[in-house]
Amino acid sequence: DENVWLRFTYNINDEAYEMSWSTDAETFTAIGTGVKPCYGYWKGARPEVYCYNVTDGGGYAMFDYFNYSYN
Fold it and tell me: Is there a smaller number of Cβ atoms within 10 Å at the N or the C end of the chain?
């Protein structure tokens, strides 16, 4: 089994939320670019894990464990 860590952080200098992933919980790789919240309509960050399929074959995601922590 291989573990994957997902990190969701707020960059106060860029005023943007940034997402990244890691397989060793030490070295993280960015996922895309930062997302700036739209104040007035922003309802807060909601981390989630899901499966998205763009073909007709369906799909699924299986997770043995999900832990949410913050500091």
Answer: C
H runs (alpha helix) in the chain = none
CA 27, 35, 32, 4 torsion-angle sign? positive
Per-residue pLDDT of 39-53, as tens digits, reads: 777 677 777 777 777
- Is the separation of the CB atoms in 29 and 20 below 8 Å? yes
Report residue 10: phi and psi, to 5°. Answer: -110, 120
Sheet-wide strand order for 29-30: 5-11, 16-22, 29-30
d(CA 11, CA 51): 26
Q: Which amino acid is at 56?
A: D
